[in-house]
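1st attempt posting a full record on here, be nice pls
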Amino acid sequence: MEERFIPQMIINYHAAQRDISVEEIGVGSFVIVTWGKNTIESLAATTSAKLSVHWLYPQRNPLYTATIHNQRVSFIQAPVGAAGTIMMMEELIAWGAHTLLGLGWAGSLQAFAPIGMLLIPAKCICEEGTSSHYMDTRAGISPDHSWLKMMQIAARDEGIEVLSSAQWTMDALY
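the predicted structure (as tokens):
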């Protein structure tokens, strides 16, 4: 099927309406996506990140960018829900993001994963309604192995207890 409407069209339209280049939006190649206002504000303050004045959704879903170890890193507050998050991630990729990392919260069905424990998905069982439109999710999906290892080592080096196991994504909040 031929694509008729792609994220790059929104990006180009947005930039043209404001008479700016796509680069002036300021999206870093590495983006941390989170869903909480306090989290995004803490990340921005900790890194002295600057708010993008040209971002498409500045009030509802702010985008901040900082330079960390000589790399532009962006932080964004995504909308709650798979469809809204994926829409924004598609646009971030069209703006130049290459790596996206989700930082959020999860419920637990297991006593060995109490509130406050750091969870790093080793695999995701996808039952929300969006992932299967992008890939075959019947067997689950897994993160890049080198990223998984790097995050586990970083947590261990900081003395943070971490659980890496399969996780379940779904649309039901409760």
